[in-house]
Structures are given as C-alpha cells and as structure tokens.
C-alpha cells in the first residue's frame, strides 16, 4: 500500500516477537528495489539477508507501507484483495556445501491483481 519514495535501499530493523511472556528482539536486514509505483501502491523486489519470521511483512508494516492483503501487521482495509500479495519467486541456499536454487511462477491471484492495476502501474 502506498508509494515508497526511495527507489532502492536497505532496511535494518529490530523486529520484536514474543515467546510466551518473553520479549525477543532480533536484528533484521533486507535490501529492496522498487520495480514500479504510483500514489496508491508500489511493486518491490526484496532480498532478505537475515531470515526472521515474517521479516518482510514486519519491515513494510513498520515503515507504514503494509503488503496488500496483510491482516496480521496492518489494520488497513484489504477487503478487495483478501490474499497476501507476497511471493517468493526465487530462493537460493547452501547446505553442507550443496547449492540449491528454486524458482516459482506468480500465483494466479498475484498475476490477476497486477493485471487489474495495470492502468496504475505499468508493470506489463
């Protein structure tokens, strides 16, 4: 939701979570790049460096631009699109010196919303 003014950068936040009554603060770092934007929404490519639970969702909610469809970390009305507009199109990691790389196409609801707002964001 909203137009992110800076076209690229990084977020370094202390993200808070709870284990019962115990408050846990974890450092989180994400690089981002704005692919396209307008006054109502921004399309981002994000690369999380750390792997915190709900890291991308929390980063964006913390700066006032929650992900469309976000219900846990935002009180904005996303009724028109009830699904979270977050998609991991590629993931790479290494375990025991073996490299893994997986890619996935956008889910149907993601592509449909991008198509619906094509007059606002010229992504296609």
Provide a descriptive summary of the structure in words.
- The structure is a single chain.
- Helix content is 14%, strand content 38%.
- It is mainly beta and 124 residues long.
- The strands form two sheets. It has a three-stranded antiparallel beta sheet.
- Strand 1 and strand 2 (22-37) form a beta hairpin.
Layout of helices and strands:
Blueprint: E1 8-19, E2 22-37, E3 42-48, H1 55-62, E4 90-95, E5 98-103, H2 108-116
For this entry, give a set of tags:
single chain, 124 residues, mainly beta, 3-stranded antiparallel sheet, two-stranded antiparallel sheet, 2 helices, 5 strands, 38% strand, globular, disordered C terminus
| Elements, N to C (H/E) | EEEHEEH
**β-sheet strand percentage:** 35-45%
| Widest sheet: strand ordering | 1-2-3
Amount of helix: 10-25%
- CA-based shape: globular
Discrete helix count? 2
Structural class: mainly beta
Q: Kindly state the mean pLDDT as a whole number?
A: 86
Characterize the biggest β-sheet.
3 strands, antiparallel
Uncertain spans: 119-124
Q: Kindly state the number of beta strands.
A: 5
For the record, give the distance between the C-alpha atoms at the N and C termini, rounded to a whole number: 19 Å
What is Rg? 16 Å
Please provide a brief summary of the model.
The chain has 124 residues and is mainly beta.
